[in-house]
Design goal:
Blueprint (H helix, E strand, L loop, with lengths): L18 H5 L1 H11 L4 E6 L8 E7 L6 E7 L5 E5 L14 E2 L3 E2 L6 E2 L5 E3 L21 E4 L2 E5 L6 H12 L8 E2 L5 E5 L3 H8 L5 H4 L1 H6 L6 E4 L3 E7 L20 E8 L3 E6 L2 E11 L2 E10 L13 H18 L16 H15 L1
Antiparallel strand pairs: 1-10, 2-3, 2-5, 3-4, 6-7, 7-8, 9-10, 11-18, 12-18, 13-14, 14-15, 15-16, 16-17, 17-18
């Protein structure tokens, strides 16, 4: 790949990524190798390994990264994230969630402790220089945010800085008390490039034109976007008397009527905080023009559900999908090359495009 992307840091001069970024399979492969392998991903709730000496296998971004991984919890209550691929012949070590004091591959009996260190291998007494460090299961970086877990394959930035910045505004919320409401979860399949979905999420510019219901409860004139290194925040202010956060006195937004905090973490994670809890949205590329978006709702205050900005999430999603799929059709045009940014309304999109260019060019 020889083409380099240049996004001017001055938003008043910058052009968007070219249409070729969204429609060229070379760039889609570069996204996989240069962005997703070098970033963090939300794994889920620590309850996935809900007891000591427990192992939970999963596939990270199936049909895109398709990386077999494993969460373990040892007898000291420590959680690890490991590769689920045996270092002998590549078999999956754990096939399903199980109680386990150690990890034993069912193919030839190679065993590991719950942190991935090799313990025993039958019929290897005469093998020289064995075991070596590469015979251990690879251990991935793991970060905790309340009950939520994040892992990185080979992350190019430190997630803790992102989590610390998020805590500045939502750290007062008792995340450990948030409960998954499976009935409110959903997977959406969209006929569009994954980055177009993120482009749409990262600006409130379209709200008055696309989301009539959401626009009625948000004060569009006071909509804010705050930028950080690998994360940005959109703050939605209530238009009237809708549900708002009860903020503590030392909060940076104390005294303001905040209806929602919309956090986006590079490259594909969204944490939408409402007075009732949080909606976690994961954007998962499947093909160059096909994307899966998964919604997980963790509820804190059931009395505030279905009110204000955090209501009708499915309706808002369907409206967004229609717009994003329309853009996907439009960028195939021979006559569309690139666009410009609104300095007041598209700071988040500009930020995203700069990060994409930085990682793709690296």
């Amino acid at each position: 790949m020889t083409e380099k992307f240049k996004i001017d840091p001055d938003i008043t001069k910058a052009e968007t990524l070219p249409a070729s970024f969204y429609r060229n399979p070379v760039f889609f492969e570069a996204v996989r190798e240069r962005i997703f392998y070098r970033s963090w991903q939300w794994i889920g709730h620590e309850g996935l390994v809900d007891s000591r000496q427990n192992a939970y296998p999963f596939i990270l971004l199936d049909n895109f990264l398709t990386e077999p991984m494993l969460l373990t919890r040892d007898k000291e209550d420590r959680i690890s994230c490991l590769t689920n691929v045996c270092t002998h012949r590549g078999n999956l070590v754990v096939e399903s969630t199980k109680t386990a004091k150690k990890l034993i591959c069912g193919y030839h009996g190679r065993s590991f402790d719950l942190h991935g260190k090799i313990e025993h291998m039958p019929e290897f007494e005469d093998v020289e220089n064995f075991p070596r460090p590469c015979d251990n299961l690879n251990k991935f970086p793991l970060r905790h945010w309340g009950p939520f877990l994040f892992a990185g394959l080979n992350p190019a930035f430190e997630l803790q800085k992102v989590l610390d910045a998020m805590n500045e505004r939502v750290g007062f919320l008792p995340l450990q008390e948030f409960v998954l409401d499976e009935k409110r979860g959903n997977d959406y399949f969209i006929d569009a490039n994954w980055a177009l979905y993120c482009d749409n999420y990262l600006e409130g510019f379209h709200i008055p034109f696309v989301h009539e219901g959401l626009n009625a409860v948000l004060d569009y004139g006071n909509y804010d976007t705050l930028l950080y290194d690998h994360m940005n925040l959109q703050i939605g202010y209530a238009e009237g008397t809708e549900e708002v956060f009860d903020l503590p006195e030392n909060h940076p937004d104390y005294g303001k009527k905040i209806a929602a905090y919309y956090y986006w973490v590079f490259p594909n994670m969204m944490f939408n905080f409402y007075p009732w809890g949080v909606s976690v949205n994961l954007v998962q590329p499947l093909e160059m023009n096909k994307t899966k978006v998964s919604f997980y709702s963790y509820v804190y205050d059931t009395f505030k559900l279905d009110k204000g900005a955090g209501s009708q999430l499915d309706k808002v999603e369907i409206e967004d999908e229609a717009v994003v799929e329309g853009v996907q059709k439009g960028i195939r045009s021979h006559f569309y090359k690139a666009g410009r940014f609104s300095p007041s309304r598209e700071k988040g999109v500009h930020h995203f495009h700069r990060l994409l260019a930085e990682f793709i060019n690296s």
